[in-house]
Design goal:
Blueprint lengths: L1 E7 L1 H4 L7 H12 L2 E8 L3 H14 L2 E5 L10 H9 L3 E3 L1 H13 L13 E3 L3 E3 L8 E6 L2 E6 L3 H16 L7 E9 L3 H7 L3 H4 L3 E8 L2 E9 L3 H19 L3 E4 L4 H12 L3 E5 L5 H7 L8 E6 L3 H8 L3 H7 L4 H15 L3 E7 L14 E8 L2 E8 L4 H21 L1
Parallel strand pairs: 1-2, 1-3, 3-8, 13-14, 13-15
Antiparallel strand pairs: 4-5, 6-7, 7-8, 9-11, 9-12, 10-11, 15-16, 16-17
Helix pairs in contact: 2-6, 3-4, 10-15
Length: 410
């Protein structure tokens, strides 16, 4: 069963906004069991939107579109769909009342422009939006059933899960199974080399890769005569993938590296303090993006200046002068100072040269020292990361979390 994804918005076609909706929707459709035929982006132009929808409707069974359902003049998706169907727009009073009530809860008065969000093509099935003002809708176009959702990611994801997936799941063939593995620590080329030959050894299995810096996602997809046979083939191939990649795999599906590290700390009842310099709070930000960080995170001190390292963490100024802020000695003292100041079980430190300036022959841009301390003593790792400033900072944050996870798990 085939499907297509259409992302609508001039800001997307011009590259002014990164399209995260399309890839996410496509991944969900594949997980359900659909073969995604195409993913396209089109600007806010009625004829071009209509042409894209008509083309998809000739070739696939399910279409999922996002964007263009807002209140402004460039939101023309609904009008384009009506033109494809050759029907008029009709205002749905129940939807209009829901929009009005949402504005009232926010202490605002609904503007007339928002009323157009209650207009739908005649015969459309309305899809309620529980967290936004723009309802979605569904229509049959030729051989395809098409769903139109708002472009706001958090609204779209909830509506796809609650409104769309239950409607299309029965249409999906039950002959595929997919497992997604999340990895960190090896480049995509090396991951691919390590997994060479698995597809040939497992009939019906396809291995795909998705690079999302600095991670690599490995997707093991199997197709069989039934859901059961597909699952068995997928699990068998996945076991071989796990054996070949080992500790490089940190989680599955929607796991994040920070959530996995946080779960390790929480499950072991370990509290954490962090002392950051070159990463400027990135490690703490990654951890606190995930729910439940208050269970283990006591402190994240961004001690960028040497004076802060000395005053806040108690780093000896003589050590700073003798070895420099970017050194194994200072990384060790930063971690120990953070643990002492917070009373945590373990502490992590990061200090380095993120660039683009500040590097020397001995300590080039990308040099980072990572320190961790706890009941097992103090360890320091020296790394040199490639890339621009943000890449170096991201690499350092991940490497720090990796060091922490290894230390706590020992």
């Amino acid at each position: 069963m085939t499907a297509a994804v259409l992302s609508i918005g001039t800001e997307l076609s011009r590259g002014e906004l990164v399209n995260t909706n399309g890839p996410w929707i496509a991944a969900q459709l594949v997980t359900i069991g659909f073969e995604v035929f195409e993913h396209a982006i089109v600007d806010d132009d009625r004829p071009r939107i209509a042409a894209a929808i008509e083309r998809f409707a000739r070739n696939v069974s399910v279409i999922v579109c996002t964007g263009g359902l807002g209140p402004t003049t460039d939101d023309v998706t609904t009008e384009a769909v009506a033109s494809v169907l050759g029907v008029k727009l009709r205002r749905d009073e129940a939807s209009l009342e829901n929009i009005r009530r949402r504005f009232e809860k926010l202490g605002r008065v609904m503007s007339e422009s928002n009323a157009k969000q209650a207009d739908f093509p005649e015969g459309a099935e309305i899809l309620p939006n529980p967290i936004g003002t723009a309802p979605g809708f569904s229509v049959r176009i030729g051989r395809a059933i098409a769903f139109f959702l708002p472009g706001v990611p958090r609204e779209m994801t909830r509506m796809l899960e609650e409104q769309v997936t239950p409607r299309i799941r029965p249409l999906a063939p039950s002959d595929t199974h997919q497992i997604r593995l999340k990895t960190f620590g090896l480049p995509e080329s090396v991951v691919g080399e390590k997994l060479a030959g698995i597809e040939a050894a497992h009939e019906g299995v396809i291995i795909g890769y998705r690079a999302h810096f600095p991670e690599i996602e490995v997707k093991v997809l199997a197709k069989g005569a039934s859901q059961t046979s597909a699952r068995e083939a997928c699990e068998k191939a996945t076991a071989e993938v796990r054996a070949r990649l080992g500790a490089v795999i940190y989680g599955e599906a929607d796991d994040t590296f920070a959530s996995v590290v946080g779960r390790t700390l929480r499950n072991r009842g370990v509290t954490l303090a962090i002392a950051e310099s070159c990463t400027g709070g990135l490690v703490g930000s990654m951890l606190t993006r995930e729910p439940g960080a208050s269970d283990f995170l006591l402190l994240d001190a961004v001690t960028y200046a040497n004076s802060a390292k000395a005053r806040v963490l108690g780093v000896d100024e003589d050590v700073l002068r003798a070895h420099g802020a970017v050194s194994s000695e200072v990384a060790a003292l930063m971690a120990e100072g953070a643990r002492r100041a917070s009373g945590s079980d373990v502490a992590l430190s990061l200090t380095g040269v993120a660039g683009p300036t500040g590097g020397t022959e001995d300590k080039p841009v990308g040099t980072v020292y990572l320190g961790v301390t706890g009941a097992h003593g103090t360890e320091v790792k020296h790394r040199v990361f490639p890339g621009e400033r943000l890449q170096i900072q991201t690499f350092a944050a991940y490497a720090g979390l990796q060091l922490l996870r290894t230390y706590v798990s020992a």
